[in-house]
Amino acid sequence: MRALHIAATGMRAQELNVEVISNNVANLRTTGYKRQRADFQDLLYENLRRVGTATSDTGTIVPTGVQIGSGVKVAATARILTQGTIAPTGKETDVAIRGEGFFQIRLPDGNTAYTRDGSFERDANGQLTTVDGYEVLPGIVIPEDGRDLTINAQGVVQVVNGNGQIQDLGQIQLARFVNKSGLEAVGDNLFLETTSSGAAIVGNPSEPGFGDLQQKHLEASNVEAVTEISDLIAAQRAYEMNSRIIQAADEMSSTVSNLR
After folding, report:
1. Please, which residues have CB within 8 angstroms of residue 96's CB and are 6 or more apart in sequence?
2. How high is the pLDDT of residue 260?
3. 20 to 30 A from 3, CA-CA: which of 156, 209, 214, 234?
């Protein structure tokens, strides 16, 4: 009976949907996290009576036909890259992006990763790094005697040196992508460039097409608890309905097998 297989695909799809929702909820407090959404597509159809076929020699045709679908599949887990809430932290090495763009991070293997998480630190050499010690590009080194670190909206980094003079340390640049949803998430709040995302377009904050920076702030996750709860309830109901279809199909099969 087709209904058993069709309903089973529905239950598998909703299982994955719940997994996506649970990951969103788990990252409710993750800095710079962007929520995901499961997108579905129907599976192949069996044509029992093909639409448009002739039904007589006079040219009459089938107006609608008979097609039986074979279920559902998960086509994508799209990432929703909307702006998260900008919250003050008071920490001078915390930086939030307001608008388009990603910070550039040099990985230990030399490749460049991208992130919206601006919770940066200062290592033993004064280098501006992520919490995992990865260098923020282009490299910014804060001198030992530097104080009153400032990062303005355009990404210019300055300190007051030991002589009491303002010293420029460099310029934080941002990267953006034609298809930012095509970036590959690799964990640790990092993304990698793919052929789907296109090559990174690098520029300074506040330039056309790029957002600006806010020091002593961080971007919160864009997950909304109410939205996730309502999506979870809908997924649960869909799962229950598919399980009832399996139960009904099983009862129908049992009725047929018990015929005398």
Report:
1. 86, 118, 213, 214, 217, 218, 219
2. 61
3. 234
201 vs 28: CA distance, rounded Å: 29
**Cα–Cα distance for residue pair 101/175, rounded to 1 Å:** 5
Beta-bridged to residue 106, according to DSSP, are: 112, 135
List b or e across 99-118, with b for residues whose CB sees 16 or more CB atoms inside 10 angstroms. Answer: ebbbbbbbeeeeeebbbbbb
Closest CA to 192 of 104, 82, 75: 104
What is d(CA 103, CA 96) in angstroms, rounded to the nearest whole number?
10
Task: Please list, in sequence order, all residues whose beta carbon lies within 8 angstroms of the beta carbon of residue 44, skipping any fewer than 6 positions away.
Answer: 69, 70
For 196, phi and psi rounded to 5 degrees?
-75, -35
CA distance 251 to 229: 33
Interatomic CA distance for residues 117 and 146, integer angstroms: 24
Q: What angle do CA 96, 102, 107 make, to 5 degrees?
A: 110
The model's pLDDT over 119-135, given as tens digits with 9 standing for 90+, comes to: 999 988 889 999 999 99
Q: Which two tokens stand for residue 18?
A: 């719940």
Q: Give Cβ neighbours of residue 88 (< 8 Å, ≥ 6 apart).
A: 216, 217
Number of separate helices (H) and strands (E) present in the chain: 2, 20
SS (H, E, C) 33-88: CCCEEEEEEECCEEEEECCCCECCCCCCECCCCEEEECCEEEEEEEECCCCCCEEE
